[in-house]
């Protein structure tokens, strides 16, 4: 159970993030609202995935700290972190010849101990994760036989089998067609709205981010430009500052959330040669 404190369960203070000597981001302060669907957006190489790696303890900050449930995330044993926080990385490769059920069952590893192996509780958690993601009918199929959309749901099922209150998703819609992108994001929204999970996702599509996020973090050049409710912070000026894109921001006719419409391309007029 979470410790009593005024800060959200997951937040970070004054982070400096680097790969060896190369500084990627400095002075990042991030608060993930409890029970939110937080989305991190920004142009390529702005530090989005690097920030997510720091929040999940994959990347150790060069300075600053990530706090989980009132304590530095680095102070917990790895299995304890995995019982509180689940991560779907950007690229996931399943072992050859593994079935869907066996891969999803690996999500129960953080709950295994020397004197507590597979249990009825584990069985129920796996069955629930398969059902929630709609892949229960694929349980006996080999993962490498599945479509991209099916595989992404299976990986999400494995993370759900961990039964963590916080889920971190690094570009969960990459390489999926538009229908499967919406399918996966609808599932994430259901997990947030109906089951109370706190979700943090990195997305490339700004309109998807505006449609699904309850809290948006916009990054550029290793710094946070804005964070808050997308209905309040997403403007044409912000899009221009973050992405360098001239646009209009209008209400989406389906959801009322901000919809970014790129400005019309101005074509150069080719002079018409005079008739000889």
UniProtKB/TrEMBL annotation:
Ranges in coiled-coil conformation: none
Topology in membrane: Peripheral membrane protein
GO BP annotation list: iron ion transport
Subcellular location per the Swiss-Prot or TrEMBL entry: Cell membrane
Membrane spanning residue stretches: none
Native organism: Crossiella cryophila
Official protein name in the record: Iron complex transport system ATP-binding protein
Main location: membrane
